[in-house]
Amino acid sequence: MSSGNLSDSKAAIPLLKKIVSIMPKHFTTTIFDAGYDYEPIYKQALAQTMRVVIKYNIRNESEYLGFDEYFRPICVSEHSYCYDSFDDKYNRLKYTRPKECASCPLRDDSLCQKVFKIKFATDIRKYTYPARGSEFWEKFHKERTAVERVNAYLKQ
Known about the structure:
Largest sheet: 3 strands, antiparallel
Number of strands: 5
Oligomer: single chain
Helix content: 25-40%
């Protein structure tokens, strides 16, 4: 969608704006690879009320303690909380206690929470709707990789 001498990530915001001016309310989701993982792109897509599916680019960041690779909270026994739902009113993701914790002796301890609610604003790169690692997110990500395979085939 852009010339070879221009970084795709630099062209993303103008392209998002142009898409909305040409076809308002036609697109609901932006799907990009990790090369587009920049906060301004998330902000632009969210300003246009689009969902964002961009693979997270770690970029020399340290490990995010207390969370798994999809930024879901983990319990004391190191099980990932399960994505439950998205609260549109408060723009937050809801995670519930993992099934593995059903028989855990720490289940009723103050260290183990039943529910975590995390707002987008905490970090819009890490917390997106659909939630990273959820079935919904994976469905969109698979669509992107399928399109990439078709594009690669057409280039041959």
